[in-house]
Amino acid sequence: MSALVLALIAGALVGLALGALGGGGSVLAVPALIYLLGFPPAAATTASLIIVTATSLTALYAHARTGNVRWKAGALFAAAGLLPAAAAGAAASRLPQPVLTAAFAAVAALAAVTMLRPSRATADPAADGAKPYKAAGTGAGLGALTGLLGVGGGFLAVPALVTVLAFEMQAAVGTSLLVISANSLASLATRGAGTAGIDWTVIGPFTGAAILGAWDGKRLATKVTGTLLQHTFAVVLLAVAAFMLIDALT
């Protein structure tokens, strides 16, 4: 199968994940770029951020139109993570790749288990302006992990918004896209030189398919329950975590 066809298929899946689940784009994009399209890990991380930034902004617009974005809490959540993301990103360059891969797998598995557990929190319709210290604290922690692992962070932002800030699933999905966009843009700003080796003949179609997939994912999110979305998200995370942990240990 040609690289172009693989890029289109992988891009559509990444877009569906971001549009429907509010995260998982980098979790899917990085392995696809490495194992399907032959990118080296460093180039795959940078390319993933380009793809996820463009797709997240598209999906954010779609969710904002239907009122699923909590702008105040989301902006605080994202802003609190920018400096920790930069510091952790500098530290990540000094760590061996297997260590980062294993850490990525462990955090993804932890997020999945959290999403599968029954939530005791009650969704708060006024969460847009509530508990700013929780939003800032959780956002800082997420930013540090995002910088360390080199991903947009949606697969962590969604469970954090659900369990820590008591967002209902649809609001968590929409708001996480604001966080992903901010984190990805910040990460790209520190990797400007790294875009020189990107193969745009692959990344262009990949990004285009992901953007189209995000619109389909948004429509899918309106047709299924929040619980089903949450459990689907968790199963995807567990599968990716298992695959990457095996890869790190072999």
| Proportion of residues in helical segments | over 70%
List the helices and strands in order.
Answer: HHHHHHHHHHH
Tally the helices: what do you get?
11
Q: Note poorly predicted spans.
A: none
Shape: globular
Could you walk me through the main structural features you see in this protein, from its secondary elements to its overall organization?
- This protein has 250 residues and is mainly α.
- The chain contains eleven helices and no strands.
- The protein starts with a helix and ends with a helix.
- The model has no long low-confidence stretch (mean pLDDT 79).
Question: Topology of this protein?
Answer:
Layout: H1 3-21, H2 25-36, H3 41-65, H4 71-80, H5 82-92, H6 97-116, H7 132-149, H8 154-163, H9 169-189, H10 200-221, H11 226-249
Protein name: Probable membrane transporter protein
Pfam family, one: TauE
Transmembrane segments: 39-61, 73-92, 98-116, 137-158, 164-185, 197-215, 227-246
